Amino acid sequence: MIPDRRSRVFSFLLALAAFTATNACSASTPHLTDVGVFSDKALSKPSTAFAKQDAIYAQCSAANAGGKVSVVWHLISEKVDGQPPNAANPSLDKSFDLDGDATTDYTLTPSGSGWPAGTYRLEVDLLIDGQQKDQKTAEITVS
Description:
This protein has 143 residues and is of the alpha+beta class. The protein contains one helix and ten strands; from the N terminus they run H-E-E-E-E-E-E-E-E-E-E. It has a single domain (29-142), classed as Immunoglobulin-like (Sandwich).
């Protein structure tokens, strides 16, 4: 190879490597942002501790969705008085079908007797075509 051609090949490979690295860093897969848990409907007072009669407000966003996704909220009773460990509460599940990046809000209101004391876990799943692509969680306590 002649020196001029060698330097052009080297320059091309260097440019190709830079292009690949740039695109790898900027491309991102669909994901969820962190789950925010709040004690007020305006979502301005972050909290993880609640009383038996408190409503619980949460928020999470789908990012880089690029198309149709589902965001599904679950409340799991991790260690709650009178319930088995890690018990699901399917009646409180909430699902959102989104056409791309969007924010979802999840509100939980206690029954007349209030929340049983203990530790709960909010789980948020990001699904694409029924397949889980991401999950975020947040723990809350009721006393």
